[in-house]
Amino acid sequence: MTETLLSACARLGVQLRPEQAAQCRDFLTALLEKNKVMNLTAITDPEAAALLHFADSLALLRYADFENKRVIDVGCGAGFPGVPLKIGAPSIELTLLDSLQKRIVWLDETLRAMHIPAQCVSARAEEFGHREAFDIVVSRAVARLNVLAELCLPLLKTGGVFLAMKGAAAQEEQEEAQRALSLLGGEVERIERYPVGDATHCVVVIRKLRPTPPAYPRRYAKIKQSPL
Hints:
By secondary structure, this protein is α/β, with parallel strands linked by helices. The protein contains nine helices and seven strands. The chain has a seven-stranded mixed sheet with strand order 3-2-1-4-5-7-6, sandwiched between helices. Helix 4 links the parallel strand 1 and strand 2. Helix 1 packs parallel to helix 3, helix 2 runs antiparallel to helix 4 and helix 6 runs parallel beside helix 8. It is globular and about 45 Å long.
């Protein structure tokens, strides 16, 4: 797993030291052990996880300056992309946010045991507060971009960056979300594409240009029923 990860990061142009790859391996070991009793990941092959969980997450280090930044992973699930980013860029101040408490409890216990500092919070993004408190917001596989933007941009400082990890439909989702982004104070700078194994993944890079109006975010039922 560590060899696969180091090779993939070299291909991506991401610097990862062997001891950092070993930390990723240890986190994966804990994840796969817990996965026997809790549904955390469908990817259980270590080499596949090295690519699809860890290298995929670490690729974000190419597209923003994470050094000493306050970073929040919205809808972090089993800790991706947040945990690999914290391992790859230890200076970040990381918050992991997820609505499922049992996942957050496991993450908190696991990261404490590994001496990886992070704030692990069980809450819905639209109810979390901490408005405009973060330099970088990251999110992977949570919702379509027009919905996700309303959950994430209110948390971001003006001038900060939102990295939305997307698949093949990234361009379509960006076009669909233009009105939402404009209302919420954001603007797409670019879509970056990068290789993960034999596939190409995307990240939509969104800059926060203006404060988000206080009317947003709305309650999630309203967001889902009537996306901006």
